[in-house]
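Journal club side-thread
Mid-discussion, someone asked how the predicted structure for our own chain would compare to the paper's figures. Pasting it here so we can look after the session.
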Amino acid sequence: MTSLSRELVFLILQFLEEEKFKETVHKLEQESGFLFNMKYFEEKALAGEWDEVEKYLSGFTKVDDNRYSMKIFFEIRKQKYLEALDRNDRAKAVEILVKDLKVFSTFNEELYKEITQLLTLENFRENEQLSKYGDTKSARSIMLVELKKLIESNPLFREKLVFPTLKASRLRTLINQSLNWQHQLCKNPRPNPDIKTLFTDHACSPQNGARAPTPVTLPVAAIAKPSTYVPLGVHGAFPPAAASANASALAGWMANANPPSSVQSANVAASSLSVPSNQVSVLKHPRPSSTPLGMIDYQNSDHEQLIKRLRTAQSVDDVTYPAPPQHVSWSLDDLPRTVACTIHQGSSVTSMDFHPSHQTLLAVGCSNGEIALWDVGLREKLVSKAFKICDYNACSPHCQAAFVRDSSISVSRVSWSPDGNLIGVAFTKHLVHLFAYQGPNDLRQHLEIDAHSGSVNDLAFSHPNKQLCVVTCGNDKLVKVWDLAGRILFCFEGHEAPVYSICPHHKENIQFIFSTAVDGKIKAWLYDNVGSRVDYDAPGRWCTRMLYSADGSRLFSCGTSKDGDSFLVEWNESEGAIKRTYTGFRKKSAGVVQFDTTRNHFLAAGEDNQIKFWDMDSNNVITSIDADGGLPGLPCLKFNKEGNLLVVTTADNGFKILANADGIRTLRAIDARSYEASRAPTEMKNGVDPISRSVERQKSLDDVSDKTKAWELVEIVEPVQCRAVTMPDSTDPDNKVARLLYTNSGFGILALGFNGVQKLWKWSRNEQNPSGKATASIVPQHWLPNTGLVMTNDVPENYEEAIPCIALSKNDSYVMSACGGKVSLFNMMTFKVMTTFMAPPPASTFLAFHPQDNNILAIGMEDSTIHIYNVRVDEVKTKLKGHQKRITGLAFSSNLNVLVSTGADAQICFWNFESWEKRKSITIQLPAGRVPVGDTRVQFHSDQVRMLVCHETQLAVYDASKMERIRQWVPQDVLSAPISCATYSCNSQLVYASFADGNIGVFDADNLRLRCRIAPSAYLSQASSNSQALFPLVVTAHPQEPNQLAVGMTDGSVKVIEPSESEGKWGVAVPVDNGMQNGRTASPSIANNPAPEQLQR
């Protein structure tokens, strides 16, 4: 279903709720699966209507979708079972045990036995774990608390728990707008049109004398519009209606001193606070009049009359026809995602800010009170200032006492002034420092202010009355404005909790300040003594920071609640209500998520050891990166003013500079100038030779600084240059590794051999490996259940000719695999076969789970068809036909709603997975004379748009949205053997490719430039590395560690390979402006890739 169709469902839901069609509302919620109404779910559970509870729940998830879903259904059925026992209804309890709880025995047999034993007890409370079970009502309430947590954590319910922010009766408004437009087009418009039906377009019947059209309003009797309606539940299923927008952005915010609080929206009324008359005229703007649609060309006599009426028409409520906005094209490549360098600061970085005009000049504040200036283009610390009190005697007694009790201090905020001449620094105790910046190494303290009692939480610069001022806030609940001499100009009182952040801004010539407190209150202040103009609640009602887009037109906030839930939203300034809520925060946060904006188009936030990016006009995360690892759980980040560089803090007291193509060129230009300067005649200064200093800096560059020899390849040829570990009990020359994958948790590796046997290796948590994740530094355990069962597939007699295939469930609970015979479903804990299906012929050759339903499986077949199979009902829903030979690859994109299939016929087919219709079929470009043979594999990039296609003759990147190739690489030079397999790294920054001569290539994913070659001598024994018959058949990448890969060898062995601990990653980043686009390249010598005509040789 398209996004507009989805939004239409929400409009219908709102209409049904307003019209009190209660049962229909919940039926549509369940059938569409778009909105899970938590209040309705709670009501039914508290009432013990268990059949309705499960029926409603089934619209959103099934028992075995994931571990959260399984736990939800288990808790419900357990409660139903216990209530039957409590009523002494043993027959009903046995029925529930057999029909409802039996399904969980497959996953936890011991628990099922324990539940069964409750039947033997006179009172199940005799069981120690159930001894505190109270009455039915309290037990249901306790269960609901647990269920709510599980539902909110379940990824299947993401974006389905909150109804979108809509004005009241939005569907009616759209109908009114449509009727108004239809009335505008009437040849004979009546002043009071009679609307009798919506089934046909409106048209006024002819009458004597044409009159100017008037706005159309539906008759009350036709569609009654309620004045108010009650929200369905605390989760904001149907938010209260927001009033119509006020004339100006700030006027809308300054609407009511005490409006009702709501995360979703807020009612706006006329302000009871006085505003100076000279400001009122500025705060109000005339409503833009309707203008004709410029794209319409009627080419008839009615055209001129229509345009005249449109121009002279009266204003229509809620209807304007502005000129279409000019959209600037963008792509993910505009985001700074490539790690350009990593810099060690020496102490934990707490705040950062780029200079407003010098794009590579970075101010850094630290947890030990130090501030530093870095030129990130040179990777050089220009100046550093340790914390020092300038005039201790001038400090207040409270300030002095604070330093006597504890002398430690940290920087809470560092910020450049708009002209770049000053740096403001706020500290966690009382003080603010201003530094004057007069040159690269010239940073002088300008002013010290004893600003607040307790911590100074934020600092910013503003320009009231064209005077540069400093705005601060602190734990004393105050917001203060200072001039550059340290004199206080304004002190704003009104917050009832410590003020967390400030956001000065202006609209035309109106200067104002937003402030947020740790109780979640948002207030706005003009530079006067009238008081706060706004009193609203921020989402989460805890620590929130507000920022404007670079052009000042859009307002955003990001914050975290005390419970660890994070919220990133856009505000509608004209109403003081939330306009858009962005999704993508995955886990509870121990602190406050930090964010920034850039280019009037992107948002970025640091969470879950990653950087996540959003398009301002889209709710969903467009991409996320871990910046090659090493980020803290909640990294701090900041864009430069051009948006081509992004700095992010690291967990080891430093920061990383990320860049896009333009940013890398900027860094290169600075470093090139530095390098040229180092070659000019110089003189010794202070006993230091500038030449040696520059040369030393030149040698230290690690990622971008290889521009003088950008095409130089990093060769890993010795075992000491990397880490490698061989899985125990894996070597078996008679059982080559056919398929290899990591478990989704990253704790284990699963290998499927050509003989149909699957092996699992797990790493244990210990002092050497506290995370328990896969690593090349520790030998894992060949894991088997206590029963000693081995996962063995149904195989034919001639299994050597079979095509093994495998797919792992998202929660690692079960694995599906086949090897020429039936598809087997194995329990990953017990290794038992849960079921088998799809008996040959034809045999299955590739398996892929549907991204939205674990019960739907796409199965590629030996006869070139694709079966869409429902595991739950054991039924093939449809068969897809489009290939000429067996299926060798399948990949879903949930963003594009497509299934991509590849076959041994070298064809790539694109299927719409809603209708299962084929959208397009293309053939990969093969060298002249080559017959399509061998496997063609496909894998989607993390952005779910680009995809990697691998064939023995090439690597290629395709844009699936356009269904066309954008880049290609063919074997050559040191990597001239056929490609055996390839895969993206977990962050899609790298491509790992294995070759039939034992080499492994590491490529930059964006441009397919070779970054590093891992020779077989680096990860194989000396005797093995000389064997031409020994090479990787398959390669896979760790799901969380971007620089870890595993290979399955022709001798059955499985190896995990990582860079050496000293390096930490594979090679260096290559220039982004190289590579072959659309099959062409400027220079093979630079691109490491032949032109298309060379493929024909």
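Post-session note: The first strand starts at residue 338 and ends at 344.
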